[in-house]
Amino acid sequence: MLVTLIFGGNQGDRKALIGEAITEMSSIGKIKHCSSLYETAPWGFESPDSFYNQIVTYETNLLPEEVLNKCQATEQKLGRVRTGSQFCSRTIDIDILFCDSQIINTTRLTVPHPRLTQRNFVLTPLKEIMPDFIHPVIHKTITTLFMECEDTLKAEAIEKCRI
């Protein structure tokens, strides 16, 4: 299965934390693609600290819930503290965007990520590495979703992928 993850954070050494998280997640399987590193504006809340975000795809034999467990363990290892607030500053956040073209709705996991079509900071790097991928629920390409997105918050590539 090809799993697509987004890494983000706006506290601490953002670039180093994302790099460490990407490396840590390599235990689930081989990296297939990675986007540039993006500097992005906070979405859904106010903060003086911008985020760094990067998308990486991994080829894995794990089940989606096993990938989720590894994401959450990695977040905890890298200092993520869950406050109960959905939109807040954090050291690291790892979200599952896609698991191939599977549609998953459990109490712990919803894939595709339910808000990815509303977020420029997700669609911009997705468009870079998988522009023709068809969203399995909406049945539109990432490029089309990007063009239709009303979010105009900054998402600026600052460094090409080095993986």
The total strand number stands at 8
Number of structural units classed as domains: 1
- Secondary structure category: alpha+beta
CATH topology: Alpha-Beta Plaits
Query: What proportion of the residues is helical, as a percent range?
Result: 25-40%
Describe the global form. Answer: globular
Order of helices and strands: EHEEEHEEEHHE
**Poorly predicted residue ranges:** none
Largest sheet: 6 strands, antiparallel
CATH architecture: 2-Layer Sandwich
Oligomer: single chain
Portion in strands: 25-35%
Rg value: 14 Å
Protein architecture, described:
By secondary structure, this protein is of the alpha+beta class. It has one domain: 7,8-Dihydro-6-hydroxymethylpterin-pyrophosphokinase HPPK (Alpha-Beta Plaits). It has helices spanning 14-25, 64-77, 120-129, 142-148; strands at 2-9, 29-34, 37-40, 51-60, 93-99, 104-105, 110-111, 155-159. The strands form two sheets. Strands 1, 2, 3, 4, 5 and 8 form a six-stranded antiparallel beta sheet that branches. It has a two-stranded antiparallel sheet with strand order 6-7. Strand 6 (104-105) and strand 7 (110-111) form a beta hairpin. Helix 3 packs antiparallel against helix 4. The longest helix has 14 residues, at 64-77. The two termini are 20 Å apart.
Ordered list of secondary-structure elements with their pairings:
Elements: E1 2-9, H1 14-25, E2 29-34, E3 37-40, E4 51-60, H2 64-77, E5 93-99, E6 104-105, E7 110-111, H3 120-129, H4 142-148, E8 155-159
Structural features:
alpha+beta; six-stranded antiparallel sheet; 8 strands; 27% strand; Alpha-Beta Plaits
